[in-house]
Amino acid sequence: MTEAGAIPSLPPANFFDPYYHAFHVPFVFVLGTIFGSFFNVCIYRIPMGVPLSMPRSHCYRCGRAVRWHDNIPLLSYWILRGRCRHCGARFSIRYFGVELLTGLLFSLVFARVGYSLALIPALVFISLLVIATFTDIDHWIIPDRISLGGLGAGLLLAAVWPIAQAPGNPLVGGILGPELFRDVPGRWRPLADAVAAAAIGFGALWSIGWLGSIIFGKEAMGVGDMKLFAMFGAFCGLENLVYILLLACVIGTVVGLGLIARDRIWHGRPVPAALASYGGDPAAAEALAAVHPLGAEEQQVVLAALTAPGVVGPLRHHLTFGPPLAVAGCIVYLFGPRLAAWFETIMFGLDRLG
Ligand SMILES: [Zn+2]
Hints:
This protein is mainly alpha-helical. Helix content is 62%, strand content 0%.
C-alpha cells in the first residue's frame, strides 16, 4: 500500500492494474482481428442461410478450402495481395477491412472499459454492431439471429447483477435513470432499464416508420431496424437510446444525401455490394450456386440481380437506417457520458455546472 498522495516507487504488482493497460491493448487488438475474421464468415453466411459450422471457408471461384496459414487475420490478405493462392481469384478488401475495424473497436472498447465485467456486454454489443452493419449493407436485412438474438443476450447480461453494475456498463446512468427506476429494487434496476429501453426503442422506431409511411406513402422503416433498436435498448438503457436516435438521424441524413447525390451523378442504381464481386459473370454465379445451398427465393434474387443489375426485387425498398444506427450506437456506447454532459450543458445552460 502507498500512502495517500505518495507516488508509488514501483509499478503495481497486479498485472491487470490499469497501469498496464497500454501493454494489453495490442493483445486485445489481435483478439479483435481474430473475431473479425469470424464475423466475415457470419456476414457472408447468415443472410444466405449457410450454417456457420458447415464447410470450411473456401475460394468462391475454385472452391478450394482456405488453409489455416492462409487464413491469418490481416496478414494473409496482405501477403496474398487479396487473392486466392490457387486460382488467383480476388477477394474483397472488405475482409481485411472488417478484421481491422473489429481489432480497432475491440481495442477502443478495452481502452474505455478496462478489465471489468462490463467488458463482456461491451464486446458482445460491438460485435453485434459489426455483423449487423455489414449484413445490412450487403443484403439490406439485419438477421433476426443478430437483432433478436442480441436482444436476448442483452437482457440476460442486464439480469446478471455483477455484470450489470460493473463500472463502464451504461445501464441506469445519466440524469433520468436513477429517478425513473427509483421504485425498482437495486438488484433489478439495470434489467428494468434494459426492458423498458428495448420496448420503448422498438415502439419509437415503429411510430417513426408509421408516420413516414403516411407521409411518403410507402414503407419508410424496416422492421429489422426496429428490432435492432430494441437490441440497443437492452445494452445501452433508455437515456442513451435518445442520444443514439438523435445522432443516427444526423448521420443518416448526411450519408443518405451523399448516396442520393452519388446515385444521381452515376445514374442508375448500384449493383448490391454482395454481388458486385461477381461482376455479373454467369459462370461465377453458377459457382456460387454450386458452393452455397441457396434457398429458391435467394437464388431468384441472386439471378435477377446478375442478369439485370439494379433489380433486387423486394429487398431494396427503403434507405437503410441500420448502418447509421450502428455507428451512432457505437459512439454513444463508448462516449455516452461525455456526450450526455455536453448535451446537458447545451440544453440546460451553465447553471448545471455552477
Ligand atoms: Zn481459388
